[in-house]
Design goal:
about 230 residues; disordered N terminus; two-stranded antiparallel sheet
């Protein structure tokens, strides 16, 4: 990561806000993401260290938080709040942090530690399934495991969200053209038509999607009511 963003959660969130990042923005012609300040170098380093496809790593973070450092608040018993670019909580946080030799608090609040912990957790799932390589569809069981749900429908929906993001590609670009993060589309994956929307909707084109680390299926119970307050 260049000097655009620091490694703390607060400054990373402020950085994304100050630079007016937008999802799925078009890159300027000739711009090289690898040499641009942002998160891509951090994702690439963690992916190399743990033999995880970098686009998969970025797509999971995109689905979880839209590449924002979040700090959730516990709302329901048995469902701790997520934190960081991957909204880490539960075993994803504990095992990921332990695997990389950092404290859970560091994995929650530090950008690089959060990415590395997530990559290590994915690598652990991959090893358990005997999965390796760049065949993104083959990583479906790993993605489902990262959802931390025992509900088959929740696991399938989560994996579909990530694979849909990979199929279409995504980017976050500052108003001055600086690339915060991006990964190319993988059209060979097709789309699974998951229910979760990814961008502006027809009823309000200026809507901005904001991830909530407090969202869940309430430990496997189907969502039947949404309260807006």
């Amino acid at each position: 990561m260049g000097n655009l963003c620091t490694k703390s959660a607060a400054s990373a969130a402020l950085c994304l806000a100050l630079f007016g990042c937008t999802d799925d923005g078009a890159l300027e012609s000739g711009q090289d993401p690898a040499s641009t300040p942002g998160l891509d170098d951090d994702f690439a380093a963690a992916a190399r260290a743990h033999d995880v496809p970098v686009d998969l790593l970025e797509a999971i973070s995109y689905v979880e938080t839209r590449w924002q450092m979040v700090i959730g608040e516990s709302e329901h018993e048995g469902r701790p709040a997520g934190a960081g670019l991957f909204a880490l909580w539960g075993d994803n946080l504990a095992v990921g942090a332990a695997s990389t030799g950092v404290s859970e608090e560091t994995a929650r609040m530090d950008v690089t530690a959060n990415i590395t912990a997530a990559a290590a957790r994915l690598a652990g799932f991959a090893e358990a399934h005997g999965i390796a390589g760049d065949d993104l569809l083959a990583w479906h069981p790993v993605i489902a495991d990262f959802s931390q749900s025992d509900d088959p429908d929740v696991r399938s929906a989560y994996a579909s969200d990530v694979l849909d993001a990979l199929a279409t590609g995504a980017s976050a670009v500052a108003e001055d053209g600086t690339v915060i993060a991006m990964f190319d589309a993988h059209p060979e994956l097709g789309t699974t038509h998951s229910a979760q929307g990814r961008g502006a909707t027809a009823d309000y084109a200026n809507a901005v999607w904001r991830a909530s680390p407090n969202y869940s299926s309430r430990n496997g119970t189907a969502v039947s009511l949404v309260v807006i307050h």
